[in-house]
Every structure is written in structure tokens, then in C-alpha cells.
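This part of the workshop introduces the protein records we will be handling. Getting from the letters to the C-alpha cells is the skill we practise here. An example says more than a description, so a record of this kind follows:
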Amino acid sequence: MPEENKYRNITLVAFFAIIILALYVRLPGFYMETKGRDTYFAWTDGQRIATGVNPYERIMHGDMIHNEKYPTRLPLVYLIAALFIKLGAKEFESFIFFWRIFILIFDLTLGTFLFNYGRERGKDFVGLLAAFVWFFSRWGLYVWEIGNSEAFIILMMVLSLYYWDRKPFLAGLLFGVSLSMKHFGVLFLPVLICGSKDLREGLRRLGYVLLIPAAISLPFFVWHPEGFVKSIFFNVVRGVSSQLLEDSRSIALLFGETGILLRLFEVVVYLLFWTASVRGKWNRWLGAALAFFIFLGFNPVLFTQYFSWMVPFILLYMIDVSRGGEIAIYE
């Protein structure tokens, strides 16, 4: 219909204007100081790999409570940093310039996906709103300013959930890439696996997810098993740390800043969440958003970038609800 086509064309033009504005507000990020941030330490660990040193060995000199910026992620982010260094970005200043271009691509792609998700469901304006919120809210802008890779990680997980039913192998690989960069996806993975039609299907999907993380992690595990295991599990046992809300330490107020009881509450709430999600067959986007919302409320360690994790999933759920329907966790 001509009137509807006109409306859709207007929203498309508006989206391109938003893209241009998003690029404009991100330009100052190329000049912001990021030394001392996570990406700086990813670069230093990438340097270690590039020179034949295992970055996971460093934790052997720590106490497993205080964070000395150990490499606590799976190796993908450090391997990408090492690749950039091998290609010539040996100084941090040159590295961060190309790194920002790298993450900007995924930042813009994530916003574009949000818009297209609404557009393909006939909710162009809602998709426009979702893209606008991602590009200009403080959470999306903050992770860009500090040079973090959240946009890349979140996009991989969003695409994985989008293709979960239609292309299981691709979805599993995408989820595995997300985990390989930062493993917060494990908070929602049990819901997806338990939502499979049977045990065999669940195990196959789990195999797809673990394929890439296992392939890139095995060499480092063989290289130094104890260092690798301690580094990956450091976030499970580390002491309380917060970049904001210093007076809101969650359950740590009762049980102190270390110890098993501090983590027990988080384990219990996730067991309840996973069970409720699977039994209730909740909307997939809502389930992911709640998984990260619970993390914000119960994890003893809290940093500003953590808030960005749930934003795209809330926006995708908003699009689903606005069209009067829901996508179950499994169909």
C-alpha cells in the first residue's frame, strides 16, 4: 500500500540518519585514553602470546582473591590481539586504533540488526527505537568509549539465539564464539540446551557450542593446565569488587567479601531461573535479559560494562511484544 510504503521509507531514511549520528558521537572515542582498561590488558596478554609466552601462567603468583588483571577469559580475545600485533600494531596506540575500527563494525551491525528485526516484523518504528537506544544510551556508548569488545560478544550471542531453531550448527558456532571472547553466555546456555526436544538433541547442540571454545583453549590447557584452570575460574572465587554502587554490595553485606556462602546464593537463584525458564517456555530474548539482570543483582563483582549485556535482549523482547506475539525458548 502506498501509505505504508511511504511510512517504511521514512523510517529507513531516519535509520540512516541515526547511523551517521552514531558514527559522529563515536569519533571522540578514537582519542580517549584507554590504558589501564580491559582492552589494554588484553593487548599485553596478546603481546605475551605473540612472543611465545603463556599469559595464563601469571596467576600462579597470585592469591586467587585479588585481581592483578589476570587473563580470565578464554583465549580468543588474546589471540585476536596477538594477530593485530603480528600484523604490525606493536604499540598500544596503533593497536587501539585498529581495535576500535574492528569493534565499531560489530557495534553498528548490532544496531542494524535491531532495526531490521523490527522492520521484518512490520514494526519499523519500534526497530528504529531499539537501534536508537543501543547507539545512544550510556551503556552502549560506555563500552565503546573504553574500547571493550561487548558489541562483538553480544552480537554473536544475539545472532545465535536468532538462528537457534533454524540453523542449529551455525547458532552453536556463534554462541561458541561469544563464549570464547567472554563467557557470560553460560548464564543462559542451560536454558537453551534443556529446551531441546530430547537428550540426544541437547548433547548435539552443546557439542556445536563447545566446538570453537574447546579448539582454541586446548593448546593453552596443555601448555599449562593449572594456570589455565585457575585463570578461567578466578572470577568464581575472587573477592568482591565494584566500579559503581559501592554502597550496594548485595549479599556480601551478610557473608563478607569471600567464601562459598557468597556464591551459594547466586547458584541457587540461577537454578531457580533455569528451571522456571524451561518449564515456562519463556520468550528467548526475555530469558537472556533476565539471566544478565540476575547477574547484576547477585554477582559479587560489578562493573559498568555489565549493564550493556542485557540492553539488546530487552529491546528485542520489546519488538516481539509490540507485535502481539512471543518466541518460545524452544518450539
